[in-house]
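Input.
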Amino acid sequence: MTSAIAERKKEEVATPQTGEPIRNRRVFVPLADIYETKDRLFILADMPGVDEQSIDITLEKNVLTINGFTAPNTENELKLVHCECPEGNYRRVFALSEEVDRDGIEATVKNGVLKLILPKSQKSMTR
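Output.
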């Protein structure tokens, strides 16, 4: 029995950016998976080419915004013959509920995958 894997391509951000962009590059929406345990939420977002120094995470009111910046390919001797991951930056916005303890949010990036840990507030866990 074979399983069909749906082909997923990078999707460009459709809405205009807020503020003035400083680079003229495409911006993609990173694919993300969200997991939940009884005391936390986990967000795993695919952001190829992004490392810990090139990511910006902001939290204003109940809006968590992730921006990842990639460096342009500078391999001069290489000639691109096939591209499934076009160059560009990443941006994703999540609306958070009151369940999340904003002071305990943690983020790490490894091999182009952003891992956000969002602990639940004590108030939400007592329900």
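The longest strand covers residues 40-46.
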